[in-house]
Known about the structure:
Layout: E1 20-25, E2 32-37, E3 43-48, E4 54-57, E5 64-67, E6 70-72, E7 74-76, E8 91-95, E9 98-104, E10 109-114, E11 117-123, E12 141-144, H1 150-163, H2 170-182
Antiparallel strand pairs: 1-2, 2-3, 3-4, 4-5, 5-6, 7-8, 8-9, 9-10, 10-11, 11-12
Amino acid sequence: MPGAEPTVSVFTKRRKVRLSKHRMVDSPFGPIRISHDSWPSVIALVQGEGMPAVTVLPDRDHGAMSVDGRRVTTSRRTDRRWDPRRAARTRNALVGGRGYELRPTGLCRARLLRDGTPIAEARGTLLSYSPFQQIPGIDARLTWSHGVDPTDVAIGQAMVVAFGAGAPGALTTLAFCWLDWIN
């Protein structure tokens, strides 16, 4: 009909939906980009200039990791000593003949070791212990020691993102216990 305004269907316009979030952190080899997505499952990708791409499925208990598409076996420390806060939260990964260990040293602190030699110190936040936090180490800051290479930095940052920095103490565990029960 002449003079009638054309109608535009709501479905003809495209909407931009951003599922992925990005965060930049500093490293000795330049910035590292941490891309994470929390829907439908939590996935994080750690990548930087000259570094291998490391994909992680973050979870303090059952996290998984792959380097350049190859799955890396991660395990919890199996020690007979009774230390539920620290020994139970220590994580190990074997990547290309190198052994990496993320060892909690306090409530919001952890030490990253490569073949028994400290290569980084991680500091987390109390917010990472909340049951509503899907990525335990997304807010952690790392301080690197000398003698690291790009592979160490990528794997170390990914381990901290996946498993978090530090182990919750008894009071923190009790405080958030009721929130876990509600979920």
